[in-house]
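Incident log, support desk, overnight shift.

02:14 A customer reports that sequence design results differ from what the structure should imply. Their input is reproduced verbatim below. On-call engineer (initials T.W.) acknowledged and began investigating.
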């Protein structure tokens, strides 16, 4: 995630991905992906509900998810897709390497095509 312009920020963007995209639940997170049909860089959105914990806990979960995406985005480039990563209550206590594996598995389940 090179810059913040590759983020989903507006509620309408999140709702569009939720309504039309593919959902891939895994133990550490839920991934929603929607193909845009262009060759622009992937855009990412992160969300964690109040069920997960107070604001300190939610922000920590969100930071962990952003770091997972950042690390894997350096390995491979995703293009033409909007991705929403939803934190679960298990995300907080899950080992980081397990979260990385969960994200990879979720990308495969959602059918996101990667560019090397």
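02:41 Re-run completed on a clean worker. Output:
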């Amino acid at each position: 995630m090179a810059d913040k312009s590759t983020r989903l920020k507006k509620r309408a963007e999140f709702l569009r991905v939720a309504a039309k995209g593919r959902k891939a639940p895994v133990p550490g997170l839920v991934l929603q992906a929607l193909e845009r049909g262009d060759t622009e860089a992937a855009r990412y959105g992160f969300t964690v509900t109040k069920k997960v914990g107070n604001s300190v806990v939610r922000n920590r979960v969100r930071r962990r998810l952003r770091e997972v995406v950042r690390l894997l985005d350096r390995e491979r480039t995703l293009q033409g897709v909007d991705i929403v990563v939803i934190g679960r209550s298990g995300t907080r206590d899950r080992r980081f390497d397990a979260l990385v594996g969960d994200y990879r598995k979720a990308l495969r389940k959602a059918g996101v095509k990667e560019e090397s």
